[in-house]
Amino acid sequence: MIVADRKPFDEIMGMIESCERILLVGCNECVTVCAAGGAKEVALLASQIRMKRKAGGRPIEVDEKTLERQCDPEYAKSLAETLEGYDAVLSIACGCGVQLVAETCQGLRVLPGLNTRFMGVTEEHGVWAERCQGCGDCVLDRTCGICPVARCAKSIMNGPCGGSQNGECELRHDTPCAWQLIIDRLKASGELSRYGEIAKPRDWSASRDGGPRKRIREDMKI
Amino acid sequence: MTAPGNLERVLTSGGFAVTAECGPPRGADPESIRKKGGYLKGFVDAVNVTDNQTAVVRMSSMASCLILKEMGFDPVLQMTVRDRNRIALQSDILGAAALGIRNILCLSGDHQSFGDHPGAKNVYDVDSTQLIDMARTMRDEGRFSGGAEITVRPEIFIGCVENPFADPFEIRAPRLAKKISAGARFVQTQCVFNVEKFARWMEMVRDLGLHEKAYILAGITPMKSPGMARYMKNSVPGMDVPDHLVERMASVPKEHHREEGMAICLETIERVRAIKGVAGIHIMAIEWEEIVPDVVKGAGLRTRP
């Protein structure tokens, strides 16, 4: 899923400083699961904004809405029909959702309420961690199901670097060294001899380095 | 083919090599490189110039190497893959070779979050092993990584680093094997303080026959103070400073800290020299280059081959 964090409250308040009526829009997908931008967070943020503005003597009207998927034009378009009288739309979806809403709500300011962080998993209740960078050329078959592109701070393909210690990445104690994990799995499956193979330089053109990406399924187009 | 550089000459002739590290200045002053070079002249076989070490911006390794070359040194150009992609790295290899800088040391580089520009974007297009392979292919096959032919091949002596003190320990010799099979001919290790562990690593290196395929230079760092010992132990990733050395540094009065650091340094050199397969030492006197002559003389290595 896409994992996001809410922007600092003061930053959000700064963005809507000049507004008197806004629509706060959440998304029912990833950001609901990672508790950043679902219906619950929409209600909470809307109350906070109203209270803060009221306390400052400049009340604001905040309407709430949560779309099934902000990254799907079917839902984003439905929003466009209900925007009469708003000064801005504050979206607390991921960056994809914010942009599709902005595309469909031409002429209206669409503001991001979240910082989109990464593609990841739920490690435990309340803890999410990065697992994939969408590099476009998956190597997990060669790395025992652990991604060195996303999980090694240096994306080293022939690791681990000289900073791996006690199973931890040199950057942070709470981040496991991806190559330690890979080697542990190679050992466990009796495949450590595979470690000797040198991984060749990657072709990053399938990644963001090849420019903005697009996927087209001609057979599905209407 | 031109004659090999001094470092390659010393190593291939079976001499015990002595190299030293030179950190470039945080400014555009060539004199500071010349001053550091002045301390080392006649005491070392090659001078290794760091590439924005600890991700702190300094004068470029290439420019500093050229200044040292003009002084008569055989410089070792450190190249990290942190700041440059394969286009820039290959371009710099050609540039270095054109300037007569023959020794290229390939390494990952410290992550930028440790330096003075933590908000910088890193590159890591290729890793250090891939850089070694790329440099070897340029030299031996006359091809760029992209496949195109090189008009004049770079004549270079390729090196790598390895940290015997990082984890997982059992992979540290096999990882060096990968770098050597990619094309590394000389190896600099992380600073050796834990000689017992280094000896165990060397045993694994010998078991794989790596000491016969590449020249291994043990990293040596003289300690100035107990504070430095503690800092390296606790705050530098991948550094292994045993407690007994920290205690030993702290056990002498302040005015004798440097003497004690020197004594530990010379003992370490003596012990690593006795380990089969160690082809030389690489002295990393961090911002203390002027001490290198004393280290070399004290270790009985003053007469350079």
Provide a descriptive summary of the structure in words.
- The complex is a heterodimer of chains A (222) and B (305).
- With 222 residues, chain A is α/β, with parallel strands linked by helices.
- Chain A has 2 domains: 2-117, Response regulator (Rossmann fold), CATH 3.40.50.2300; 133-209, no CATH class.
- Helices cover 27% and strands 20% of the residues of chain A.
- Chain A has 7 helices and 7 strands; from the N terminus they run E-H-E-H-H-E-H-E-H-E-E-E-H-H.
- In chain A, helix 4 crosses helix 5.
- Chain B has one domain (6-298): TIM Barrel.
- The longest helix of chain B has 17 residues, at 257-273.
- The mean pLDDT of chain B is 96.
- In chain B, strands 1-2-3-4-5-6-7-8 form an 8-stranded parallel barrel, surrounded by 7 helices.
- Chain B has 305 residues and is of the alpha/beta class.
- Chain B has helices spanning 6-12, 30-40, 61-70, 86-98, 128-141, 172-182, 195-207, 226-235, 243-250, 257-273, 292-298, and strands at 17-22, 46-49, 75-80, 103-107, 157-162, 186-191, 215-220, 278-283.
- Chain B is globular, with a radius of gyration of 18 Å.
- At the A-B interface, helix 7 of A face helix 5 and helix 6 of B.
